[in-house]
């Protein structure tokens, strides 16, 4: 049987990099796509995949990804995403909101549109979109991000409806608190102290490998089993605002 192929966007770090590794372990040839080529080059070398320089918001860049992948693809993981800022609605910068919508929603559209023919051509494909618990609820200071991630959620649902009858499964993974090296750092403009506060006192936030593990499980179910959505939080986070923190 031919090796299955997968594309992971945002593969340069965090959940994307862990997922690329997990899928390679499951036997996929992984196209590791990200803006930071040096990082995906090193990762691809490590896991026997193919690095692709790709900015999901840029049409020419996504076209290059489509060309690299070719006419057949088994799995697309739309992981590229980000949060910027934590201001109230009254104080938010529209530039930040646009950037979040551009990557989390339009980027997902660009990549999905480009790769859908190859996914359908495989005869048995999966699309996994990385949403968030921020796509399930509102929280103060989160409106730009929650609006974008609600967008990710509803686009995923729409896609599943539109592809009904095609050989493509569509899943949304919605993680809660995941400690990665960059997510909160990017959100707070490089302020490490603020980024660390997000996880302060939480003994065991989720890590990227926990989410990669869930994705590995979803894509290895039999073809007739579509996992619509998975909401995954650490045990210490019962809800967005209900986090168990222990300080000495
Ligand atoms: C990340 C979850 O709590 O930072 O997607 O919004 S949260």
UniProtKB/TrEMBL annotation:
<keyword id="KW-0560">Oxidoreductase</keyword>
<dbReference type="GO" id="GO:0016616">
    <property type="term" value="F:oxidoreductase activity, acting on the CH-OH group of donors, NAD or NADP as acceptor"/>
</dbReference>
<dbReference type="Pfam" id="PF00106">
    <property type="entry name" value="adh_short"/>
</dbReference>
<dbReference type="InterPro" id="IPR002347">
    <property type="entry name" value="SDR_fam"/>
</dbReference>
<comment type="similarity">
    <text>Belongs to the short-chain dehydrogenases/reductases (SDR) family.</text>
</comment>
<protein>
    <submittedName>
        <fullName>Short-chain dehydrogenase/reductase SDR</fullName>
    </submittedName>
</protein>
<dbReference type="InterPro" id="IPR036291">
    <property type="entry name" value="NAD(P)-bd_dom_sf"/>
</dbReference>
<dbReference type="InterPro" id="IPR020904">
    <property type="entry name" value="Sc_DH/Rdtase_CS"/>
</dbReference>
């Amino acid at each position: 049987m031919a090796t299955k192929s997968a594309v992971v966007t945002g593969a340069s770090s965090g959940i994307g990099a862990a997922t690329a590794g997990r899928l390679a372990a499951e036997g996929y040839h992984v196209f590791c796509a990200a803006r930071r080529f040096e990082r995906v080059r090193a990762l691809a070398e490590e896991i026997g995949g193919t690095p692709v320089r790709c900015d999901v918001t840029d049409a020419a860049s996504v076209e290059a990804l489509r060309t690299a992948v070719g006419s057949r693809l088994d799995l697309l993981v739309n992981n590229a995403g980000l949060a910027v800022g934590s201001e109230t609605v009254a104080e938010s910068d529209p530039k930040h909101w646009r950037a979040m919508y551009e990557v989390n929603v339009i980027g997902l559209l660009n990549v999905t549109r480009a790769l859908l023919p190859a996914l359908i051509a495989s005869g048995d494909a999966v699309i996994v979109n990385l949403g968030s618990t921020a796509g399930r609820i509102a929280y103060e200071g989160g409106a730009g991000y929650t609006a974008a991630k609600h967008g990710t959620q509803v686009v995923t649902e729409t896609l599943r409806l539109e592809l009904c009858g095609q050989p493509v499964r569509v899943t949304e993974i919605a993680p809660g608190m995941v400690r990665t090296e960059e997510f909160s750092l990017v959100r707070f403009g490089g302020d490490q102290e603020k980024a660390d506060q997000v996880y302060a006192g939480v003994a065991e936030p989720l890590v990227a490998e926990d989410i990669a593990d869930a994705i590995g499980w979803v894509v290895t179910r039999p073809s007739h089993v579509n996992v619509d959505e998975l909401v995954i939080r650490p045990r210490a986070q019962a809800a967005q605002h209900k986090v168990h923190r222990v300080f000495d």
